[in-house]
Write a structure and sequence with these properties.
Blueprint (H helix, E strand, L loop, with lengths): L1 H4 L17 H27 L4 H18 L8 H19 L2 H18 L6 H25 L9 H23 L2 H24 L2 H18 L4 H4 L5 H4 L13 H26 L10 H26 L10 H33 L3 H26 L3 H21 L2 H14 L7 H4 L5 H7 L8 H27 L15 H12 L1 H5 L9 H9 L4
Length: 544
Protein backbone atom coordinates (compact mmCIF):
# COMPACT_ATOMS: atom_id res chain seq x y z
CA UNK A 1 0.00 0.00 0.00
CA UNK A 2 2.42 2.60 -1.21
CA UNK A 3 -0.17 5.30 -0.93
CA UNK A 4 -0.27 5.07 2.88
CA UNK A 5 3.03 3.54 3.81
CA UNK A 6 5.41 5.15 1.39
CA UNK A 7 6.47 1.96 -0.31
CA UNK A 8 8.09 2.07 -3.72
CA UNK A 9 8.33 -0.65 -6.29
CA UNK A 10 11.61 -2.51 -5.97
CA UNK A 11 12.77 -4.07 -9.17
CA UNK A 12 16.08 -5.35 -7.87
CA UNK A 13 14.48 -7.53 -5.21
CA UNK A 14 13.34 -10.84 -6.70
CA UNK A 15 9.85 -12.02 -5.96
CA UNK A 16 9.69 -15.34 -4.14
CA UNK A 17 6.55 -16.21 -6.03
CA UNK A 18 8.29 -15.75 -9.38
CA UNK A 19 11.36 -17.79 -8.58
CA UNK A 20 12.64 -20.12 -11.26
CA UNK A 21 13.52 -22.76 -8.72
CA UNK A 22 11.76 -25.50 -10.69
CA UNK A 23 9.14 -28.10 -9.87
CA UNK A 24 9.97 -28.77 -6.20
CA UNK A 25 9.62 -25.15 -5.13
CA UNK A 26 6.40 -24.68 -7.10
CA UNK A 27 4.87 -27.80 -5.56
CA UNK A 28 5.76 -26.65 -2.03
CA UNK A 29 4.24 -23.23 -2.71
CA UNK A 30 1.10 -24.79 -4.17
CA UNK A 31 0.58 -27.22 -1.26
CA UNK A 32 0.97 -24.47 1.36
CA UNK A 33 -1.43 -22.22 -0.54
CA UNK A 34 -4.01 -25.02 -0.83
CA UNK A 35 -3.78 -25.72 2.91
CA UNK A 36 -4.23 -22.01 3.72
CA UNK A 37 -7.20 -21.75 1.32
CA UNK A 38 -8.85 -24.76 3.03
CA UNK A 39 -8.40 -23.05 6.41
CA UNK A 40 -9.96 -19.83 5.07
CA UNK A 41 -12.93 -21.73 3.59
CA UNK A 42 -13.43 -23.69 6.83
CA UNK A 43 -13.38 -20.47 8.88
CA UNK A 44 -15.97 -18.92 6.58
CA UNK A 45 -18.17 -22.00 6.87
CA UNK A 46 -17.99 -22.11 10.68
CA UNK A 47 -18.00 -18.40 11.49
CA UNK A 48 -20.14 -16.94 8.70
CA UNK A 49 -22.24 -19.56 6.92
CA UNK A 50 -23.16 -21.32 10.18
CA UNK A 51 -22.87 -18.18 12.27
CA UNK A 52 -25.44 -15.59 13.30
CA UNK A 53 -23.55 -12.40 14.00
CA UNK A 54 -20.51 -10.12 13.60
CA UNK A 55 -18.33 -12.14 15.99
CA UNK A 56 -18.36 -14.99 13.47
CA UNK A 57 -17.07 -12.58 10.82
CA UNK A 58 -14.40 -11.43 13.26
CA UNK A 59 -13.23 -15.04 13.70
CA UNK A 60 -13.15 -15.48 9.91
CA UNK A 61 -11.14 -12.31 9.30
CA UNK A 62 -8.58 -12.86 12.07
CA UNK A 63 -8.07 -16.54 11.20
CA UNK A 64 -7.79 -15.81 7.48
CA UNK A 65 -5.25 -13.08 8.15
CA UNK A 66 -3.05 -15.55 10.02
CA UNK A 67 -3.50 -18.18 7.29
CA UNK A 68 -2.42 -15.67 4.62
CA UNK A 69 0.56 -14.65 6.76
CA UNK A 70 1.91 -18.20 7.16
CA UNK A 71 1.20 -19.04 3.51
CA UNK A 72 3.28 -16.08 2.29
CA UNK A 73 6.34 -16.45 4.55
CA UNK A 74 9.42 -16.12 2.35
CA UNK A 75 7.84 -13.71 -0.13
CA UNK A 76 9.17 -10.20 -0.71
CA UNK A 77 6.28 -8.65 1.22
CA UNK A 78 5.81 -4.90 1.51
CA UNK A 79 6.14 -3.04 4.79
CA UNK A 80 2.60 -1.77 4.33
CA UNK A 81 1.31 -5.32 4.98
CA UNK A 82 1.89 -4.68 8.70
CA UNK A 83 -0.22 -1.53 8.58
CA UNK A 84 -3.01 -3.42 6.81
CA UNK A 85 -2.78 -6.16 9.45
CA UNK A 86 -3.19 -3.56 12.21
CA UNK A 87 -6.20 -2.12 10.35
CA UNK A 88 -7.72 -5.59 10.07
CA UNK A 89 -7.28 -6.43 13.76
CA UNK A 90 -8.77 -3.05 14.73
CA UNK A 91 -11.75 -3.94 12.54
CA UNK A 92 -11.97 -7.36 14.21
CA UNK A 93 -12.04 -5.71 17.65
CA UNK A 94 -14.86 -3.42 16.48
CA UNK A 95 -16.85 -6.40 15.15
CA UNK A 96 -16.50 -8.23 18.47
CA UNK A 97 -17.57 -5.15 20.45
CA UNK A 98 -20.44 -4.09 18.17
CA UNK A 99 -20.39 -4.96 14.48
CA UNK A 100 -22.44 -4.25 11.38
CA UNK A 101 -22.72 -5.33 7.75
CA UNK A 102 -20.78 -2.24 6.71
CA UNK A 103 -17.71 -3.36 8.67
CA UNK A 104 -17.94 -6.87 7.21
CA UNK A 105 -17.82 -5.40 3.70
CA UNK A 106 -14.70 -3.40 4.60
CA UNK A 107 -13.08 -6.56 5.94
CA UNK A 108 -13.75 -8.31 2.62
CA UNK A 109 -11.79 -5.54 0.90
CA UNK A 110 -8.92 -5.51 3.41
CA UNK A 111 -8.31 -9.26 3.17
CA UNK A 112 -7.23 -9.37 -0.52
CA UNK A 113 -5.40 -6.08 0.06
CA UNK A 114 -3.34 -7.81 2.74
CA UNK A 115 -2.65 -10.74 0.40
CA UNK A 116 -1.39 -8.33 -2.26
CA UNK A 117 0.96 -6.55 0.15
CA UNK A 118 2.30 -9.89 1.40
CA UNK A 119 3.01 -10.92 -2.21
CA UNK A 120 4.90 -7.68 -2.90
CA UNK A 121 2.15 -5.99 -4.93
CA UNK A 122 1.34 -2.32 -4.31
CA UNK A 123 -2.41 -2.33 -3.57
CA UNK A 124 -3.63 0.74 -5.43
CA UNK A 125 -7.42 0.80 -5.71
CA UNK A 126 -7.52 -0.14 -9.39
CA UNK A 127 -4.91 -2.84 -8.78
CA UNK A 128 -7.06 -4.29 -5.99
CA UNK A 129 -9.95 -4.54 -8.43
CA UNK A 130 -7.79 -6.35 -11.01
CA UNK A 131 -6.39 -8.62 -8.31
CA UNK A 132 -9.87 -9.63 -7.14
CA UNK A 133 -11.00 -10.26 -10.73
CA UNK A 134 -8.04 -12.53 -11.49
CA UNK A 135 -8.58 -14.47 -8.24
CA UNK A 136 -11.79 -15.90 -9.75
CA UNK A 137 -9.80 -18.00 -12.21
CA UNK A 138 -6.21 -17.99 -10.93
CA UNK A 139 -6.78 -20.99 -8.64
CA UNK A 140 -8.02 -23.13 -11.53
CA UNK A 141 -5.08 -22.19 -13.77
CA UNK A 142 -2.54 -22.75 -10.97
CA UNK A 143 -4.04 -26.17 -10.25
CA UNK A 144 -3.78 -27.14 -13.91
CA UNK A 145 -0.19 -25.94 -14.20
CA UNK A 146 0.83 -27.80 -11.06
CA UNK A 147 -0.72 -31.08 -12.22
CA UNK A 148 0.90 -30.77 -15.66
CA UNK A 149 4.34 -30.21 -14.16
CA UNK A 150 4.12 -32.88 -11.47
CA UNK A 151 6.23 -35.96 -12.38
CA UNK A 152 3.82 -38.66 -11.21
CA UNK A 153 6.02 -41.43 -12.61
CA UNK A 154 9.00 -40.32 -10.51
CA UNK A 155 7.18 -39.77 -7.22
CA UNK A 156 7.25 -42.73 -4.83
CA UNK A 157 6.62 -42.87 -1.10
CA UNK A 158 9.72 -44.54 0.37
CA UNK A 159 10.70 -45.20 4.01
CA UNK A 160 13.27 -42.42 3.69
CA UNK A 161 10.44 -39.95 3.00
CA UNK A 162 7.90 -41.42 5.42
CA UNK A 163 9.88 -42.17 8.58
CA UNK A 164 11.11 -38.60 9.36
CA UNK A 165 7.45 -37.58 9.72
CA UNK A 166 5.71 -40.74 10.88
CA UNK A 167 8.15 -41.80 13.58
CA UNK A 168 8.01 -38.56 15.66
CA UNK A 169 4.21 -38.50 15.38
CA UNK A 170 3.96 -42.11 16.56
CA UNK A 171 6.29 -41.48 19.51
CA UNK A 172 4.32 -38.40 20.61
CA UNK A 173 1.04 -40.34 20.32
CA UNK A 174 2.29 -43.28 22.42
CA UNK A 175 3.90 -41.27 25.23
CA UNK A 176 1.08 -38.71 25.22
CA UNK A 177 -1.46 -41.51 25.72
CA UNK A 178 0.58 -42.86 28.65
CA UNK A 179 0.72 -39.45 30.31
CA UNK A 180 -3.03 -38.94 29.87
CA UNK A 181 -3.81 -42.38 31.30
CA UNK A 182 -1.61 -41.65 34.33
CA UNK A 183 -3.75 -38.64 35.33
CA UNK A 184 -7.48 -39.33 35.95
CA UNK A 185 -8.50 -35.67 35.72
CA UNK A 186 -6.61 -35.22 32.48
CA UNK A 187 -8.09 -38.47 31.16
CA UNK A 188 -11.65 -37.30 31.89
CA UNK A 189 -10.97 -33.96 30.25
CA UNK A 190 -9.54 -35.64 27.17
CA UNK A 191 -12.58 -37.94 26.94
CA UNK A 192 -14.87 -34.92 27.19
CA UNK A 193 -12.92 -33.16 24.41
CA UNK A 194 -13.14 -36.22 22.19
CA UNK A 195 -16.88 -36.59 22.87
CA UNK A 196 -17.53 -32.90 22.10
CA UNK A 197 -15.44 -33.14 18.93
CA UNK A 198 -17.40 -36.19 17.80
CA UNK A 199 -20.69 -34.36 18.40
CA UNK A 200 -19.41 -31.29 16.56
CA UNK A 201 -18.34 -33.37 13.55
CA UNK A 202 -21.68 -35.18 13.63
CA UNK A 203 -23.59 -31.87 13.64
CA UNK A 204 -21.50 -30.52 10.75
CA UNK A 205 -21.97 -33.53 8.49
CA UNK A 206 -25.63 -34.02 9.39
CA UNK A 207 -26.40 -30.41 8.46
CA UNK A 208 -24.11 -30.30 5.41
CA UNK A 209 -26.02 -29.45 2.24
CA UNK A 210 -25.28 -28.69 -1.38
CA UNK A 211 -25.44 -24.91 -0.88
CA UNK A 212 -22.95 -25.04 1.97
CA UNK A 213 -20.57 -27.24 -0.03
CA UNK A 214 -20.85 -24.78 -2.93
CA UNK A 215 -20.07 -21.79 -0.69
CA UNK A 216 -17.10 -23.68 0.80
CA UNK A 217 -15.78 -24.37 -2.71
CA UNK A 218 -16.20 -20.76 -3.85
CA UNK A 219 -14.37 -19.32 -0.82
CA UNK A 220 -11.60 -21.91 -1.21
CA UNK A 221 -11.29 -21.05 -4.91
CA UNK A 222 -11.06 -17.30 -4.30
CA UNK A 223 -8.55 -17.69 -1.47
CA UNK A 224 -6.37 -19.93 -3.64
CA UNK A 225 -6.52 -17.38 -6.45
CA UNK A 226 -5.38 -14.65 -4.06
CA UNK A 227 -2.45 -16.71 -2.81
CA UNK A 228 -1.42 -17.86 -6.32
CA UNK A 229 -2.02 -14.79 -8.53
CA UNK A 230 -1.34 -14.97 -12.25
CA UNK A 231 -0.69 -11.26 -12.81
CA UNK A 232 2.48 -10.69 -10.78
CA UNK A 233 4.41 -9.37 -13.77
CA UNK A 234 1.67 -6.81 -14.45
CA UNK A 235 0.77 -5.95 -10.86
CA UNK A 236 4.33 -5.82 -9.49
CA UNK A 237 5.69 -4.22 -12.63
CA UNK A 238 7.01 -0.72 -13.03
CA UNK A 239 4.48 1.91 -12.06
CA UNK A 240 3.53 4.62 -14.50
CA UNK A 241 4.18 7.19 -11.79
CA UNK A 242 7.91 6.84 -12.47
CA UNK A 243 7.19 8.31 -15.91
CA UNK A 244 5.17 11.20 -14.48
CA UNK A 245 7.80 12.09 -11.85
CA UNK A 246 10.59 12.43 -14.40
CA UNK A 247 9.77 16.11 -14.82
CA UNK A 248 13.21 17.32 -13.78
CA UNK A 249 14.73 15.74 -16.86
CA UNK A 250 12.17 17.29 -19.23
CA UNK A 251 13.04 20.18 -21.51
CA UNK A 252 12.37 23.53 -19.85
CA UNK A 253 10.02 25.71 -21.89
CA UNK A 254 7.38 28.36 -21.20
CA UNK A 255 3.81 27.11 -20.82
CA UNK A 256 1.02 28.81 -22.74
CA UNK A 257 -1.33 28.97 -19.74
CA UNK A 258 1.21 30.35 -17.26
CA UNK A 259 -0.22 33.89 -17.19
CA UNK A 260 -3.79 32.60 -16.92
CA UNK A 261 -2.90 30.41 -13.94
CA UNK A 262 -0.88 33.20 -12.28
CA UNK A 263 -3.73 35.68 -12.55
CA UNK A 264 -6.18 33.05 -11.27
CA UNK A 265 -4.07 32.39 -8.17
CA UNK A 266 -3.76 36.14 -7.51
CA UNK A 267 -7.54 36.61 -7.82
CA UNK A 268 -8.58 33.71 -5.59
CA UNK A 269 -5.96 34.59 -2.96
CA UNK A 270 -7.35 38.12 -2.70
CA UNK A 271 -10.93 36.83 -2.56
CA UNK A 272 -10.11 34.31 0.17
CA UNK A 273 -8.41 36.87 2.40
CA UNK A 274 -11.30 39.31 2.06
CA UNK A 275 -13.81 36.59 2.94
CA UNK A 276 -11.73 35.33 5.89
CA UNK A 277 -11.79 38.82 7.44
CA UNK A 278 -15.59 38.77 7.17
CA UNK A 279 -15.74 35.24 8.64
CA UNK A 280 -13.56 36.20 11.56
CA UNK A 281 -15.64 39.28 12.39
CA UNK A 282 -19.02 37.53 12.21
CA UNK A 283 -18.44 34.11 13.81
CA UNK A 284 -15.32 34.17 16.03
CA UNK A 285 -15.30 35.18 19.72
CA UNK A 286 -18.89 36.44 20.00
CA UNK A 287 -22.06 35.68 21.92
CA UNK A 288 -24.80 34.47 19.60
CA UNK A 289 -28.24 36.02 20.11
CA UNK A 290 -31.38 34.02 20.77
CA UNK A 291 -32.84 32.74 17.51
CA UNK A 292 -29.42 32.64 15.79
CA UNK A 293 -29.64 30.46 12.63
CA UNK A 294 -27.29 27.69 13.79
CA UNK A 295 -28.36 25.19 11.12
CA UNK A 296 -27.75 27.65 8.30
CA UNK A 297 -24.27 28.64 9.46
CA UNK A 298 -23.05 25.33 10.87
CA UNK A 299 -24.73 22.73 8.67
CA UNK A 300 -25.29 24.40 5.31
CA UNK A 301 -22.50 26.96 5.64
CA UNK A 302 -19.90 24.40 6.70
CA UNK A 303 -20.90 22.16 3.81
CA UNK A 304 -20.43 24.99 1.28
CA UNK A 305 -17.05 25.97 2.75
CA UNK A 306 -15.95 22.33 2.63
CA UNK A 307 -16.93 22.27 -1.03
CA UNK A 308 -14.81 25.40 -1.56
CA UNK A 309 -11.82 23.58 -0.02
CA UNK A 310 -12.39 20.56 -2.27
CA UNK A 311 -12.65 22.82 -5.32
CA UNK A 312 -9.42 24.58 -4.34
CA UNK A 313 -7.74 21.18 -4.04
CA UNK A 314 -8.88 20.24 -7.55
CA UNK A 315 -7.76 23.58 -8.99
CA UNK A 316 -4.25 23.34 -7.55
CA UNK A 317 -3.81 19.74 -8.66
CA UNK A 318 -4.89 20.64 -12.22
CA UNK A 319 -2.73 23.79 -12.42
CA UNK A 320 0.52 22.15 -11.34
CA UNK A 321 0.82 19.40 -13.92
CA UNK A 322 2.07 18.86 -17.43
CA UNK A 323 3.74 21.79 -19.18
CA UNK A 324 3.50 24.10 -16.15
CA UNK A 325 5.96 21.95 -14.19
CA UNK A 326 8.52 22.31 -16.98
CA UNK A 327 8.13 26.12 -17.09
CA UNK A 328 11.24 28.03 -15.89
CA UNK A 329 8.91 30.53 -14.11
CA UNK A 330 7.45 27.77 -11.93
CA UNK A 331 8.87 29.24 -8.63
CA UNK A 332 6.70 32.36 -9.10
CA UNK A 333 3.60 30.22 -9.43
CA UNK A 334 4.60 28.18 -6.40
CA UNK A 335 4.87 31.28 -4.21
CA UNK A 336 1.32 32.26 -5.13
CA UNK A 337 0.19 28.68 -4.44
CA UNK A 338 1.71 28.82 -0.92
CA UNK A 339 -0.15 32.09 -0.23
CA UNK A 340 -3.47 30.64 -1.39
CA UNK A 341 -2.77 27.43 0.53
CA UNK A 342 -2.31 29.43 3.73
CA UNK A 343 -5.70 31.03 3.12
CA UNK A 344 -7.22 27.59 2.53
CA UNK A 345 -5.91 26.31 5.86
CA UNK A 346 -7.42 29.29 7.65
CA UNK A 347 -10.66 28.53 5.84
CA UNK A 348 -10.46 24.94 7.09
CA UNK A 349 -10.15 26.26 10.64
CA UNK A 350 -13.25 28.37 9.98
CA UNK A 351 -15.17 25.24 8.97
CA UNK A 352 -14.10 23.44 12.15
CA UNK A 353 -15.15 26.51 14.14
CA UNK A 354 -18.63 26.48 12.56
CA UNK A 355 -19.05 22.81 13.45
CA UNK A 356 -17.90 23.48 17.01
CA UNK A 357 -20.43 26.33 17.34
CA UNK A 358 -23.20 23.84 16.56
CA UNK A 359 -21.78 21.22 18.94
CA UNK A 360 -21.64 23.76 21.78
CA UNK A 361 -25.21 24.79 20.99
CA UNK A 362 -26.92 21.40 21.40
CA UNK A 363 -24.41 18.56 21.49
CA UNK A 364 -22.93 15.92 19.20
CA UNK A 365 -24.72 13.87 16.54
CA UNK A 366 -23.80 11.23 14.00
CA UNK A 367 -24.02 13.77 11.17
CA UNK A 368 -21.63 16.13 12.94
CA UNK A 369 -19.11 13.34 13.35
CA UNK A 370 -19.54 12.52 9.65
CA UNK A 371 -19.00 16.19 8.86
CA UNK A 372 -15.77 16.27 10.87
CA UNK A 373 -14.50 13.20 9.02
CA UNK A 374 -15.43 14.78 5.69
CA UNK A 375 -13.70 18.08 6.47
CA UNK A 376 -10.58 16.27 7.69
CA UNK A 377 -10.46 14.15 4.52
CA UNK A 378 -10.63 17.26 2.34
CA UNK A 379 -7.83 18.87 4.38
CA UNK A 380 -5.64 15.77 3.99
CA UNK A 381 -6.33 15.79 0.25
CA UNK A 382 -5.24 19.43 0.15
CA UNK A 383 -2.03 18.57 2.03
CA UNK A 384 -1.31 15.89 -0.57
CA UNK A 385 -1.66 18.50 -3.32
CA UNK A 386 0.80 20.76 -1.49
CA UNK A 387 3.24 17.87 -1.22
CA UNK A 388 2.76 17.10 -4.93
CA UNK A 389 3.60 20.69 -5.87
CA UNK A 390 6.61 20.84 -3.55
CA UNK A 391 8.13 17.55 -4.71
CA UNK A 392 6.98 17.94 -8.35
CA UNK A 393 5.13 14.64 -8.36
CA UNK A 394 2.89 13.47 -11.17
CA UNK A 395 -0.90 13.48 -11.40
CA UNK A 396 -1.06 9.67 -11.12
CA UNK A 397 0.84 9.86 -7.82
CA UNK A 398 -1.68 12.38 -6.47
CA UNK A 399 -4.83 10.55 -7.56
CA UNK A 400 -3.71 7.25 -6.03
CA UNK A 401 -2.98 8.84 -2.67
CA UNK A 402 -6.11 10.96 -2.59
CA UNK A 403 -8.17 7.85 -3.24
CA UNK A 404 -6.44 6.13 -0.35
CA UNK A 405 -7.10 9.14 1.89
CA UNK A 406 -10.81 8.78 1.06
CA UNK A 407 -10.81 5.00 1.64
CA UNK A 408 -8.94 5.29 4.95
CA UNK A 409 -11.43 7.92 6.13
CA UNK A 410 -14.28 5.48 5.41
CA UNK A 411 -12.40 2.74 7.27
CA UNK A 412 -11.76 4.94 10.33
CA UNK A 413 -15.39 6.05 10.40
CA UNK A 414 -16.53 2.42 10.26
CA UNK A 415 -14.46 1.33 13.28
CA UNK A 416 -15.25 4.42 15.35
CA UNK A 417 -17.92 3.74 18.02
CA UNK A 418 -19.79 6.87 16.99
CA UNK A 419 -22.87 6.61 19.22
CA UNK A 420 -20.80 5.71 22.28
CA UNK A 421 -18.50 8.73 21.79
CA UNK A 422 -21.19 11.30 20.95
CA UNK A 423 -23.43 10.30 23.85
CA UNK A 424 -20.51 10.16 26.26
CA UNK A 425 -19.97 13.82 25.37
CA UNK A 426 -23.70 14.63 25.55
CA UNK A 427 -24.13 12.89 28.91
CA UNK A 428 -21.19 14.78 30.41
CA UNK A 429 -22.61 18.08 29.20
CA UNK A 430 -26.02 17.29 30.73
CA UNK A 431 -24.49 16.23 34.05
CA UNK A 432 -22.51 19.51 34.08
CA UNK A 433 -25.74 21.51 33.75
CA UNK A 434 -25.86 22.11 29.98
CA UNK A 435 -29.18 20.39 29.19
CA UNK A 436 -29.44 21.25 25.46
CA UNK A 437 -27.69 18.03 24.23
CA UNK A 438 -30.63 16.06 25.67
CA UNK A 439 -32.48 16.70 22.41
CA UNK A 440 -30.00 14.48 20.57
CA UNK A 441 -31.13 11.53 22.71
CA UNK A 442 -34.82 11.84 21.89
CA UNK A 443 -34.69 12.99 18.26
CA UNK A 444 -32.16 10.51 16.86
CA UNK A 445 -31.81 6.70 16.96
CA UNK A 446 -29.42 5.39 19.61
CA UNK A 447 -27.60 2.06 19.39
CA UNK A 448 -26.44 -0.13 22.28
CA UNK A 449 -23.12 1.70 22.50
CA UNK A 450 -24.99 4.97 22.92
CA UNK A 451 -27.25 3.58 25.67
CA UNK A 452 -24.16 2.30 27.46
CA UNK A 453 -22.83 5.86 27.54
CA UNK A 454 -26.23 7.21 28.71
CA UNK A 455 -26.49 4.94 31.78
CA UNK A 456 -24.77 7.68 33.78
CA UNK A 457 -27.87 9.89 33.31
CA UNK A 458 -29.77 7.66 35.74
CA UNK A 459 -28.26 9.95 38.38
CA UNK A 460 -29.07 13.22 36.54
CA UNK A 461 -30.33 16.02 38.76
CA UNK A 462 -32.98 17.08 36.25
CA UNK A 463 -36.07 15.04 37.13
CA UNK A 464 -37.61 14.90 33.66
CA UNK A 465 -34.38 13.77 31.98
CA UNK A 466 -33.64 11.28 34.77
CA UNK A 467 -37.09 9.66 34.66
CA UNK A 468 -37.12 9.50 30.86
CA UNK A 469 -33.74 7.78 30.73
CA UNK A 470 -34.72 5.38 33.51
CA UNK A 471 -37.90 4.36 31.69
CA UNK A 472 -36.08 3.65 28.41
CA UNK A 473 -33.25 1.74 30.11
CA UNK A 474 -35.76 -0.28 32.15
CA UNK A 475 -37.47 -1.25 28.89
CA UNK A 476 -34.13 -2.39 27.44
CA UNK A 477 -33.36 -4.30 30.63
CA UNK A 478 -36.66 -6.16 30.61
CA UNK A 479 -36.30 -7.02 26.93
CA UNK A 480 -32.78 -8.42 27.40
CA UNK A 481 -33.74 -10.42 30.48
CA UNK A 482 -36.66 -12.01 28.62
CA UNK A 483 -34.36 -12.86 25.70
CA UNK A 484 -31.74 -14.39 28.01
CA UNK A 485 -34.36 -16.46 29.81
CA UNK A 486 -35.76 -17.76 26.52
CA UNK A 487 -32.30 -18.75 25.24
CA UNK A 488 -31.54 -20.70 28.42
CA UNK A 489 -34.66 -22.81 27.82
CA UNK A 490 -33.61 -23.53 24.23
CA UNK A 491 -29.85 -24.12 24.24
CA UNK A 492 -29.27 -25.70 20.86
CA UNK A 493 -26.76 -25.02 18.05
CA UNK A 494 -29.24 -23.01 16.01
CA UNK A 495 -30.32 -20.62 18.77
CA UNK A 496 -29.17 -17.31 17.33
CA UNK A 497 -29.13 -15.27 20.53
CA UNK A 498 -27.09 -17.94 22.33
CA UNK A 499 -24.60 -18.70 19.56
CA UNK A 500 -21.00 -17.52 20.03
CA UNK A 501 -20.96 -15.82 16.64
CA UNK A 502 -23.84 -13.55 17.72
CA UNK A 503 -22.25 -12.41 20.97
CA UNK A 504 -21.41 -8.71 21.24
CA UNK A 505 -19.30 -7.31 24.08
CA UNK A 506 -21.22 -4.02 24.10
CA UNK A 507 -24.40 -5.91 25.01
CA UNK A 508 -22.63 -7.66 27.88
CA UNK A 509 -21.30 -4.31 29.15
CA UNK A 510 -24.72 -2.68 28.86
CA UNK A 511 -26.47 -5.49 30.70
CA UNK A 512 -23.85 -5.43 33.46
CA UNK A 513 -24.32 -1.68 33.86
CA UNK A 514 -28.12 -2.10 33.99
CA UNK A 515 -27.80 -4.91 36.54
CA UNK A 516 -25.98 -2.48 38.82
CA UNK A 517 -29.07 -0.19 38.70
CA UNK A 518 -31.65 -2.99 38.67
CA UNK A 519 -33.47 -1.86 41.82
CA UNK A 520 -33.76 1.69 40.49
CA UNK A 521 -34.91 0.61 37.03
CA UNK A 522 -37.57 -1.79 38.31
CA UNK A 523 -39.04 0.67 40.83
CA UNK A 524 -42.49 2.03 40.04
CA UNK A 525 -42.36 5.62 38.68
CA UNK A 526 -43.78 8.16 41.13
CA UNK A 527 -45.18 10.27 38.28
CA UNK A 528 -48.57 9.03 36.98
CA UNK A 529 -50.12 9.84 33.63
CA UNK A 530 -47.94 10.64 30.61
CA UNK A 531 -45.07 8.13 30.20
CA UNK A 532 -41.74 9.52 31.37
CA UNK A 533 -40.10 9.10 27.97
CA UNK A 534 -42.84 11.13 26.25
CA UNK A 535 -42.48 13.88 28.86
CA UNK A 536 -38.72 13.85 28.31
CA UNK A 537 -39.13 14.05 24.54
CA UNK A 538 -41.49 17.02 24.71
CA UNK A 539 -39.24 18.73 27.26
CA UNK A 540 -36.04 18.26 25.19
CA UNK A 541 -37.59 19.50 21.95
CA UNK A 542 -37.13 23.11 23.10
CA UNK A 543 -33.42 22.78 22.18
CA UNK A 544 -33.99 21.31 18.71
Amino acid sequence: MSGIAGDTVSESKPQAGRSSGGHQWNMRRFVISVAAAIVVAALFDIGVYRGFGPTGWAAFFSGSLLAYFFATIGYSSRKSSWLIAVMMFALVARLIWMGSVWQCCIGLVLLPTYAMARLGIIPYLMTIFLFCVQSTFAGFVSLGKCLLRFPFDKFHITPALLLPVALPLLAVLIFGSIFVAANPDLSKRMQAWITNFERWIDVIFNELNVAEALVFGIVFWLALGQLLPLMNDLLVGKSSESIETAISSAEKKEATLFHAFRNTLLAVSGLFFIYLVFEFQTLWFREFPKGFYYAGYAHQGAAWLTFALALATAMLSLIFRGAIQADPRLPQLKRLAWIWSAANFVLALAVYNRMWIYVVFNGMTRMRVLGLFGISTVVIGFLLVIWKIKSERGFFWLIQRQLWAFVIAIYLLSITPVDYLIHTYNARQILDGNLAPAVQITEHPVDEGGWLALVSLIDCEDEIIRDGIREKLAEIHRSERHLASASKRRRVWSTQSDHWTARQLVRDQLMQALENYEATLLAEPHYKGTPSWDRFKAYAYQWY
